[in-house]
Amino acid sequence: MNFNNFGENIFFGFISNGGQNYVVFHWPKKFAKVTEYIESVLVLNKAKLPDFIVQFIFRYVENTYFSEQWWKYLSDDNKNFIASLASSMQQYGYPLNVENRKLVYWKNIEIKKNFSYA
Fold it and tell me: What whole-number distance in Å separates Cα of residue 70 and Cα of residue 20?
């Protein structure tokens, strides 16, 4: 893919393997703004990172699918908050203001990064 005239974007996906779940963010090495953004996310407390990821997804991603069980677990306030994220007109290029909410209870969070990969 030719990235010369391509805006800087973050590509990401979810992977399940052997009972483990992973969120993978990736981008071309030359995308300096994306690298700076991800580095700013990685300074978040690890306990806040899962809620950041959920807010990021509902703010920026169309056609988001999620568990009915998870949705039923959420308080009405958090359901309304998620709905507001999904329906907002987010301006790209501005940081996501993460609200301090408990939306998921992910455990054993580990961050692995490789910014040197070509």
Answer: 18
Cα 33 from Cα 103, distance rounded (Å)? 28
- pLDDT tens-digit series, residues 45-61: 888 888 888 998 888 88
CA–CA gap between residue 104 and residue 70 (Å, rounded): 8
On whether the CB atoms of residues 113 and 49 are closer than 8 A, the answer is no
Strands (E), 5-107: 11-17, 20-26
Model's pTM, two decimal places?
A: 0.77
Tell me the pLDDT tens digit for each residue of 17-38: 888 888 888 888 888 888 888 8
